[in-house]
Write a structure and sequence with these properties.
mainly alpha
């Protein structure tokens, strides 16, 4: 039960990423700039945590591996997420990330030989069907989302799913805080370089945008990952990823309340299927 509490707290914090990101994007920041500052603020918070706890030292080979994964799992992930938020809506981005259960189930079977129970398979099927309905809804903005935004959203699902097995594997050697510190370092490095190449500096931002970026990095990234790491020590990967699917429901609620984003009927129907998937897993358990 404690593991489920941790993953629910994680999902709650992640659900605020959409509305905070929209504040930044509407202030004039680019998706790549938002992605960099989210990663950078998160890295600083974890780095300070590990400095205080004296946990930073790891072999250079492992350090390199974590930084390389961070380029994919943080750099690509955050960039695609911000691009989808800008062009398809925050609610669409969050929903599309939840193709993740399908990938997590495959990873769990391949890397950890986990046996998929009947309720897990049913929950995965329901969640994926709901995601397909959301994809076909045209996004949560008033204009139809371009295909590139939908593809970027689906890539975030694969990136998101890859965190589960990688974190599980590295938790056998290092505390979660160390893992996330160097993953975020890798993401920050690649995003800084890409921003430089694209001529995105210097950055001009409003005070509200700065506060939103700090909140995304410290609360929605650092604190959320702390809870996330604790959750993966208590419950299985598939249980964690499906339970966290309360995040898109909460995210849609926030962006509807604050920005008026809304799906067509088929999109709301898909969202209901996602809620049902969570209930199937938790109540059956």
């Amino acid at each position: 039960m404690v593991g489920f509490v941790y993953i629910i707290l994680t999902a709650l914090l992640w659900s605020f990423i959409g509305i905070l990101s929209k504040v930044c994007l509407l202030s004039g920041l680019t998706p790549l700039q938002c992605a960099f500052f989210r990663s950078f603020f998160g890295f600083i918070a974890f780095f300070m945590h590990c400095m205080i706890c004296k946990k930073l030292k790891i072999p250079l080979v492992d350090l390199f591996k974590l930084i390389v994964f961070g380029a994919w799992g943080i750099g690509i992930y955050y960039s695609c997420a911000q691009y989808t938020i800008l062009h398809a809506g925050a609610a669409t981005d969050i929903i599309l990330q939840y193709t993740a259960p399908f990938w997590v189930a495959i990873f769990a079977r391949i890397f950890f030989k986990d046996h998929l129970t009947s309720q897990q398979l049913i929950a995965i099927f329901i969640a994926c069907f709901g995601t397909i309905l959301v994809c076909s809804s045209g996004g949560s903005l008033s204009t139809t989302a371009p295909i590139s935004a939908i593809i970027a959203g689906l890539i975030t699902g694969l990136c998101y799913a890859s965190h589960y097995p990688i974190t599980r594997i590295w938790q056998k050697k290092y505390p979660s805080e160390v893992i996330f510190t160097w993953m975020l370092a890798g993401g920050s490095i690649i995003l800084f370089l890409v921003n430089n190449i694209s001529g995105s500096y210097p950055v001009r931002m409003t005070f509200n945008a700065f506060l939103s970026l700090a909140a995304i990095g410290i609360l929605c990234t650092y604190l959320a990952f702390v809870f996330y790491g604790k959750a993966l020590k208590k419950i299985g990967m598939v249980q964690a990823v499906i339970t966290s699917e309360i995040e898109p429901v909460l995210s849609m609620l926030w962006v509807w309340l604050f920005f008026g984003e809304s799906f067509a009927m088929i999109g709301w129907l898909g969202s209901v299927f996602i809620i049902v998937a969570v209930l199937v897993l938790v109540l059956w358990r």
